[in-house]
Each structure stands twice: as C-alpha cells, then as structure tokens.
Design goal:
Elements lengths: L1 H34 L3 E5 L26 H16 L6 E4 L3 H9 L6 E2 L13 H13 L7 E5 L1 H8 L8 E4 L5 E5 L4
Parallel strand pairs: 1-4, 2-3, 2-4
Antiparallel strand pairs: 1-5, 5-6
Helix pairs in contact: 2-3
C-alpha cells in the first residue's frame, strides 16, 4: 500500500512539473513574440488524410492535395484571433506553397502571405530534404529585423529544423540560431 502511495505521489509530481514547464515554455514563447526579432514556425492546422499528399497531386492544384478540414479552417481563424488578443503582429509571413499551409496562413488574418518554396513539404520532397532544410536555416539565420517572422509549414519541416514534432496549429518560437525559445500549443 505504501508503495502505491509513493508511486502516486511521484506520478503527480512529474505531471505537475511537466504542466508547470509547459506553462513556462509557453510564457517564454509569448514574451519572445512580443519582443520581436524572432521566428515563429507554425504547423498548418487540421488537414485529414495522414502525411504527404495523394498520388498524382499537383502543387498548383489544391483539389489534388490534402486540404484543411472545416475544423482546420476554424482552428486557423481561432489561432489568429488569439494572436491578435495577445497583441502579436508579424513583420513578414511566409508559407510553404502547399495549399493547407497557405490557407492556414491566410485564415490567421495577420497580413499578406508569401509562398516560400524552401518550406515545401519534406515528406513529399524527401529527395530534397537536405537542400530545403539548409535553405530554411539560411533564411531564418538571415532574419535580423526588429519584427517577428511567421513561417507556416509542415510538421516534418519543423522537426527537421528543431527536433520538435509540433501538433497541428502549434507554434514553435526560435531565435536566429534556430534554438527553440518556447512553444504555443493550439487550444482545443
């Protein structure tokens, strides 16, 4: 019986510690976004169908790709509203040219969105992963502005850059050396 109580107490301590760390991590991310000069890497919102795209997809034809669900569209709008409520503005917004990323970026309603091929889907373009990731690193390292850059891309791209696998709609805030400062998780 004593072992169960000790085990339960340890589990609660770990859970509480993880929750406290997550809140501190999120607080650091919000502070960095408000301060400017950072890069926010955001994974597109809900797009059902697994990873990649259907066979024969065409980048220039959204009807052939995995696209945002209605839930994903609502999530993007809600994230944009939350960013605005928190007083966040972006100096520049870049996006993977995939429709689900461009749509997420536009639905945030935070400013004009520019496609950036270096943030293209590394799952689909697996033979170009190194070149795309190197291009993304160079672009982020060159961000020497007072404002914040938002990049809407794919989870695999963010993982290749940071080692973090974000949930849909999650934002990972990094500095110019692509060190993670904090994460902002999408609210359910």
């Amino acid at each position: 019986m004593l072992n169960r109580i000790v085990l339960l107490a340890l589990m609660l301590a770990v859970t509480f510690g993880a929750a406290t760390h997550a809140r501190a991590d999120e607080a650091a991310a919000w502070a960095a976004l408000r301060a400017g000069g950072h890069v926010a890497l955001m994974r597109h919102t809900d797009a059902p169908g697994g990873t990649g795209d259907p066979p024969g997809f065409k980048l220039e034809d959204c009807a052939t790709q995995r696209n945002l669900s209605e839930r994903g569209r609502a999530e993007a709008a809600a994230i944009g509203a939350r960013l605005k409520t928190e007083g966040i503005a972006f100096e520049k917004i870049l996006s993977s040219p995939w429709c689900r990323c461009m749509d997420t970026a536009r639905l945030l309603d935070m400013g004009s969105v520019e496609p950036a091929s270096t943030f293209g889907n590394v799952v689909v373009l697996h033979d170009q992963t190194e070149a795309l990731t190197d291009g993304a690193r160079a672009l982020i390292a060159a961000w020497q502005r007072t404002g914040t850059l938002l990049v809407v891309t794919h989870g695999a791209n963010i993982r290749a850059l940071t080692g973090i696998s974000p949930a849909t709609g999650e934002i990972v805030v990094v500095d110019e050396s692509i060190e993670a400062i904090g994460r902002i998780r999408r609210r359910p």
